[in-house]
Structure formats: structure tokens, C-alpha cells
Amino acid sequence: xxxxxxxxxxxxxxxxxxxxNDINRIYHSTPSLGSFxxxxxxxxxxxxxxxxxxxEWDNVTRLFTPSPQTxxxxxxxxxxxxxxxxxxxxxxxxxxxxxxxxxxxSDYLHxxxxxxxxxxxxxxxxxxxxxxxxxxxxxxxxxxRKFFLTGWPHSAAVIKEDSSQAEYAVDSWFYDxxxxxxxxxxxxxxxxxxxxxxxxxERNDKAEPVNGE
Length: 213
Description:
This protein is of the alpha+beta class. The protein has one domain (20-212). The protein is built from 6 helices and 6 strands; from the N terminus they run αββαααββββαα. The protein has helices at residues 20-27, 54-61, 71-93, 114-130, 186-190, 199-202; strands spanning 36-40, 46-50, 137-145, 154-161, 167-171, 182-185. The strands form 2 sheets. It has a 4-stranded antiparallel beta sheet. A two-stranded antiparallel ribbon has the order 1-2.
């Protein structure tokens, strides 16, 4: 795990304190459909142990049916699947109300910061990988961009395409709960990428400067 604590520190908006032991335990656990743990509250200050029914998991597997024939199509399915899992999990944990970004959201219960999102997205992809749904990618450790001197730190999950060895950021922090994750080349993400239709721009969220500014 690389520099997972970001977005939370110095935000002054979420009344939470990151528990590194919990983060490491959850991040390095082996999830299963019968038992997996998700984070919320900023820096994983709260966690919930959940399970998925076969019917709930069918909502994920149908996104990979027929099986993607290219890495690009598989990435699109992964992005959609993370959104679907956020929606399912949100009804169980209260995170259905999670809003895009971190700053300016302190009035919203069950808010997630980028650490929560990065850990949960990694967990969701591990479930997909275990089910044999990911054929063109491997899951890597999370990554962080910016280190206070150059902007607010921000973390995301990461995958690597097998054939090209290209790395992609898998970022579910840019949109409200239940939206597909954003998957872009790592170099693009590291440069400060934010989707132009992200609500954090519409809300003038200052948690992440646009284009690294």
C-alpha cells in the first residue's frame, strides 16, 4: 500500500481520525462474497462487515456478460461494476448518501474520503478478480498524487493492463455514490485530472486543485 492516507488530513471538515491499523487490516484482508469489509467516515474511521447475496452479485456479473474481449471493454465493465457495488453497499451501510469529493461535505452522514473510496474500490475489484471476471488486468497497490507542497494529496485504486503493462487509476471519488468509477491512464491522473462534469467542480470543491494548480 503506497501513501494511502490522503484527502483526510488537513481537510478540517470530517470529524474523524484515521486508524492506520484498521486501514492496513482491511486493505490486506482477503474479501469474499460471504464476508468483506468496507470503509467510511474518512480514513476508514468506521468499517462495516458485509456479504452479498447471489442475486446481488448477479448485478455485477451481468456487466461482464458476454465476457469482454478487450482490455478497454473490461475497464468499462469494472467502472460500471464499482458503481453498482457502491449502490448495493450504500443501502446496507448508509453510504448511499455519499457525495463526490471530501471538502464541504461535513454535514452529510456516512461521507467517504478518497482513502475510503480507494480501499473499497480495491476490495470490489478483488471480488471481481476472485470471480474470474477480470481477465486483462491485475490489481496494484493504491497510489497518491500531490504531497501538500504541490496540492492536496489524493489517493485512488490502481490496475495494470497485462499486455501493455500500462497502469490506470480507478477513482470513485469524483462522483456521488453509485456512479461508475473513473478509470484513466496513471500519467493523466497523476497530472491532476478531474472529470469536467464532476460535481466537485460544480460545487466549487477546493479539495483538489484543477490541473494541479
